[in-house]
Input
Amino acid sequence: MWGRFVTQRTLQLIPVLIGVSFVVFFTMHLTPGDPIEHMLGQAGRITQAQIDELRAHYGLDRPLVVQYGLFLRHAVRGDFGLSYSHQGRSVSAVVAERIPATLELTLFAFLIAIVLAIAAGVVSSLRPQGAFDRTATVGALLGISMPGFWLGIVLIIVFGLRLQWLPISGRIDLALAPQPVTGLNTVDALLAGNGAAFLSALKHLVLPGAAMAAPMAAMVMRMVRSSMIGVLEQDYVQFARAKGLPETSVVGKHALRNALIPTVNIVALQTGLLLSGNMIIETVFQYPGLGKLAVDAIAAADYPLVQAVVLIYAVSYVLLNLGADALHAVLDPRVRAA
Amino acid sequence: MTAQPLLEVRDLHTHFSTYRGPLRAVDGVSLTVARGETVALVGESGCGKSVTALSIMRLVRRPGRILRGRVFLDGEDLLQKAGAEMRQIRGGRIAMVFQEPLSTLNPAFPVSTQIVESLKVHGVARGKQARERGIQLLEAMGIPAARERFRSYPHELSGGMRQRVMIAIAVSCEPELLIADEPTTALDVTLQAQIMDLLARIKQERGLAIILITHDLGLVSQFSDRAAVMYAGQIVEQGPVAELLEEPLHPYTRGLLRCVPRLGRLGMPITPIEGSVPDMAALPPGCRFAPRCPEAMDRCRRAMPAACEWRPGRAVRCYLYGDAEEAGEDRKQDHGVADRD
Amino acid sequence: MAQPVTGDQVLEPVAATTPGMVRLLLSNRVAVVAGLAVLGFAAIGLLAPVLAAYDPSAQHPEAIRAAPFWHPEGSTRFLLGTDSLGRDLLSRIIYGARISIFLGVVVVLLTLVVGTGLGMLAGYFRGWFDAVMSRVVDTLLAFPFLIFALAIMAATGPNLVALVLALAFKGWVDFYRVARGDVLAAREADYVTAARGLGASAPHILFSEILPNIIPPIIVLATLRMATIIIAEASLSFLGIGVPPSIPAWGTMVADGRADVASAWWIATFPGLGILLLVLCVNLFGEGLRDALDPRMRK
Output
């Protein structure tokens, strides 16, 4: 039953992934003219030989459909061409070295968003219209109304510059950088048993993480809250109490489990917001990850690089949604039967 | 032979705060249940039967609260108990079965979890032992293939089986009193009979006292020892079932019985009761049934009659049988009873 | 008007008619204030030439990075200070309201019309059109919103028309789904069967019978979407690929002010505050609208 569920969903993915690659490919070709011409405007950063190689690689003298085919074929093998804003290094290499940073930041933001949102949502739902609920609701409203880049800047001003509590750029105090094993500084620091490095990495994650997490946390919290309020009215919650179960079990186990079901869907949708926000926040904080790479690439008109990054974000999003579907099925046994 | 009753409810008042003022869902209900006895709580929808049950279990939540009254279980007032103690009593000494098993069983957990956690919380069994006991319970409730069904989810079971599961959970920790809130209303007739048979059997086997909440007079006559008729938040008549059905005293009870078509009395007209239930947030002074009562007197509309004992074991709230008036309704004092643990 | 309350119910008043809904909305003071505030923003934008003290692109080299007036070093000449080119911040913020609201409204209207139209067609006629649209929608949904717009703007550069299209490209999907879903449900409804029985044609049914019933959720969605669009536009402008730099936009202003965050914090902060306030009001109004139009939609 599980096997069938997974294969079914994965098969549904394929047309979507194809569509995604299609869109990515064609948007890049919206610009009038030969992309190579644009590259030439980069004041001799790449050699003529590399230009010719690129021309052949992209098949720019061939019809568009063929180019798309070539793009797909190369993409599946992880070959996205050369990045001309990075001295002609291969795009995949440039991208690969930035992924861990973004992964670390995104995971961090995701975790704090989820934990905070669920906690706040549950507590709010226990006493609707109470003091905590009102505060949390206002906070959530602000969270979804705030532009992420602005929040980032305000956090920099307040916590970085005025109070000087936290760093405002980079990933870690370079002097403390641990041996890269996973590429995630916090994990590497823990593996090396280096407390100071771990702390430094963590401190660098706080402000950008918070700025990234805010809109998602706000939306998820509202969902959890309203879902919980609905669930707490259900008969099975009352029955759980009638069985003599302690309130923590009634709320934390019986109610929450059901309230999380629709929440998973919202979380999946919101990860899209998280990924978009990632680019912006990395720019604001000069965080050396994929997002900043993309923004710089856009400024430099480095299309192969932009293409690759956009594709990665899109595919991640698709996979995340698949994961969310699976999680949904885990939480709600009624879905599995379908 | 007057042993202390298992349950004694005395002058219970439960109100709900609504945007239109307080809704007096339970307004001075007094009731006793002896060990092993089945008492039916009868009335139409909205008369307060379920709220009475919830009040006994202290499961009434905002915007409702128990204003005053006493609920004695074996002589101890439940309304004075601390939260932790009450939790032990729920499920352990008094258990409740609800109307719609599909919505009462948690859809996210299999039956096994829901039975085992009860056993664990009340210290009856844990782990493997608990699982075995759970399966035995299902078998005792007449569920075929109990071992497989034990691992199923509620939505995978039929309505009748779900109700049996709910009853299994309810009796798993050997309670002394079972409150069954419309246990068969959501089931079709053949299943109804099966479930009632099951209840009769476990009542016999375990010496269980039962409060049966229903609007079905047929069930009342077949299954209970005594009955209490509720109308608009109050008990208007109570007594042994046979007497109640043969010789109904209160005009409402009489009206109810006339409404029910009976086999063997073909040709008798079914006369519905005129009018409709009162607006609980805007009650008239005096007897609540007066507006619909064919025998209403002026007095009935002015002051509320108090419940009086017509015969030992038989009480009625009606001026036709007694002169006592309900003392002033404006006693604002209440215990401030905690209604959540 | 209120039904008798029995022991089972603790009723809330329900308004299902248009005057009832309007009354319910107006009773929500927060929503009303927010709605008026949004209109206020629009008015400010429209009256910008009159309200702003200075031309938004006028530079004052002698007063570069001037502080807001309450600051000891500030003056009332430039109430909110000036930016790195000596341009009056308050005037720029006032002008910035124009583009934000303009784009918000235009994009929302575009997505609303396209999405609702396509959704109604797909929902009513089904068939191959519906099937094809499903695929298209699935693909579009696979993209996080901003990433998609970003990809387009990256290719075209800051360009107003492209921006509108980029923002609209994915937004119509929400309207499509709502419209399609509601139409699917409505076409089985009795009043539609009755209309068909009377010989009404499909377009007539769609527009005169079904459309009025699906308007409330569409309106709510439109308002809430506008908030998203405004933030998205600001984000793209912040990255330099949104509104062309010649037009004063709040996002661009924040980007400009980023470099001076340590010394002249107001340059980045106030335009952002403008975005926050506008979006907050749009959201508050939208939620009030949702509560009034369909309490069952409450999330």
Notes: The first strand of chain A starts at residue 82 and ends at 83. DSSP finds 14 helices and two strands in chain A.
